[in-house]
UniProtKB/TrEMBL annotation:
Catalysis performed (reactions): riboflavin + ATP = FMN + ADP + H(+); FMN + ATP + H(+) = FAD + diphosphate
Record domain Riboflavin kinase: where: 182-307
UniProt-listed Gene3D superfamilies: HUPs, Riboflavin kinase-like
GO molecular function annotations of the record: ATP binding; FMN adenylyltransferase activity; riboflavin kinase activity
Role: Catalyzes the phosphorylation of riboflavin to FMN followed by the adenylation of FMN to FAD.
Pathway: Cofactor biosynthesis; FMN biosynthesis; FMN from riboflavin (ATP route): step 1/1; Cofactor biosynthesis; FAD biosynthesis; FAD from FMN: step 1/1
Lineage top rank: taxon: Bacteria
Gene name of this polypeptide: ribF
SMART domains attached to this UniProt entry: Flavokinase
UniProt cross-references to Pfam families, sorted A to Z: FAD_syn, Flavokinase
A biological-process GO annotation: FAD biosynthetic process
Catalytic activity, EC: 2.7.1.26, 2.7.7.2
Protein name: Riboflavin biosynthesis protein
Keyword set includes Glycosyltransferase: no
Amino acid sequence: MKVYNKASDFNPEIPTVITIGTFDGVHIGHRKIIERLVNSAQQSNCQSALLTFFPHPRMVLQQSEDLHLINTIEERKSILASTGLEHLIIHPFTKSFSRLTAQQYVEEFLIGKLNAKKIIIGYDHRFGRNRTADISDLKKFADEFNFEVEEISKQDIEEVAISSTKIRTALQNGEIEKANQYLASNFSLSGEVVHGKGLGKGLGYATANIHLKETYKLIPKNGVYVVKAMIEGKHQKGMMNIGTNPTVGGTSKSIEVHVLDFNEDLYGKNIEVEVLHYLRNEEKFDGVEALKKAMLQDELVTRRYFNS
Ligand SMILES: Cc1cc2nc3c(=O)[nH]c(=O)nc-3n(C[C@H](O)[C@H](O)[C@H](O)COP(=O)(O)O)c2cc1C
Ligand SMILES: Nc1ncnc2c1ncn2[C@@H]1O[C@H](COP(=O)(O)OP(=O)(O)O)[C@@H](O)[C@H]1O
């Protein structure tokens, strides 16, 4: 798969079949659309292309602080690369881009820059300045500018019964198995290991504190989880806590992983954590002895999880 950071970097001589959207999570429903796109392109001797915008339009237009995505743009790229898609265009969404009229967007951008011969798109897609145009407008443009529109019907979408919103809600409720099933892969987080409060080793559970670079990455509900950590190309078993560590008087949110049967310096290294199972809420214990006891219990349950 080739990746372009703006539409003008993609210079398609062969016409394209394209789809447009955020595709956050690249879940089972998204995968079906991409499969349809790739097959359609093959059958019509076209190239398959997915157009997505970054930053997310809501981040640009509403400076939305509450927008959290299942995938960072890097994660999305790497999952899409495994789908058979030929071209991924990540076009910068700016205020001036958002002011293109529906006709300018179709004529100058989708046709002019992306050489679209066919657009495969959901029944509820909206586009153009203030998102005023809909799929019936797109069909009118299709007649005028000689391209095809293939509509993904409401029924097709509802049949899959999966949406990025449902997955986000599941993650925010700690329903990890449900989210992972919808994603057809494990929800993951990754980042550099940074210094924490320096208390973990003293408790008998050193924890690698993970710094997330992207502020828009969705963080699952606070609590304790069973995880698989990828450290320097090797999978390790672990348990993770997300929260403020109230027992030791913590106030800011941290994401920290204790890796089982492991004793190495991880500061400055990158680790990727696949979240597997929610264990319990983060609690404010009556002192560190009670916390240590709870962590020992978490360890036992985590070991049991991996053994079963
Ligand atoms: C499996 C696990 C469970 C944890 N559960 C709690 C908890 O319920 N309440 C709490 O205040 N902190 C909890 N913690 C966080 C500890 O307070 C924290 O790891 C410790 O203070 C070390 O922090 P540091 O890495 O910043 O030094 C948990 C940590 C782990 C790894
Ligand atoms: N089993 C382990 N799991 C996680 N980190 C470990 C482990 N063994 C050693 N470490 C190292 O110890 C550090 C965590 O120690 P800790 O006392 O919790 O301090 P901090 O507050 O800086 O996280 C990790 O960042 C890592 O470098």
